[in-house]
Amino acid sequence: MFESTVGLRLLDRTTRKLALTSYGEAYLAQVSRLVDEAQRTFDDMMAVAKGPSGFLKIAAPPDFWVLRHLSGVITEFSALHEHIHVHVDLKPAPVDLVGDNYDLAVAIEEPRETSLIVRKVAEVENGIFGSPAYLAERGAPMTPFDLEKHQVILPMQGTSATWTLKRGSESVAITVGGPLSCNSLSLARRFAVAGQGLTRANVINVDNDLSTARLERVLPDWNLPATPVYFVTTSRLLPAKARSFIDFATKRLAAVLANASGDSRRGGVRMAGRSVERASLP
Question: Could you list the residue ranges that cross the membrane (predicted)?
Fold first, then answer.
């Protein structure tokens, strides 16, 4: 009846499935925005009456800094918003925000989907680390080119990788590799502590290893690209519960990470400026 009224076919029908036509997709996108705006208006009214409320589902990477620092930020937020139930899933990237019904995700890689809304919260400094035993046996690299002679544990699948190191205006691209690789920064760190080679790591993830002399930083004057920390959502039209968390965590998470790591020279977190250009949260 609706198709007859508007004079357009919105669905392609077969005996096996239904599929949206281009008109149907356009109509769905438009009415979805209207529904989202209506839901946001309702949430805003409820938030004025009793504060943000509801079930807030967050996806985050299973990294050490998340367990140690993001957990504290969520604890503070939860104490301030008794009507919001926060659920956190530790999931490696990529995360299906729509399919798994997440309100937002914390990411350390910028998502490939251009439709997602991305806000950079901070940048975590990276360094190169090895155990005292390994460095005593193989010698500490004195220049970036010395890394080509070392065993390097790669936190990714593959036998080699290209690292770009910078010092002031100098930039050097080095091919590194070794007999060990894995898909976990935490596991790569453990291999390094066990003396299996050098690895790159977020400085904030190895601060305990540095203070207890399980690891030493090599080539401290040379910088690897920093790891960005993002908040990712599927829409700018966020319910009050998600907006409240993003506003709170954007300030607290960057401050907590920077505090935990000390100044940027020692190894830490640079506060991010404006959102990335592609799409940004308000």
Answer: none
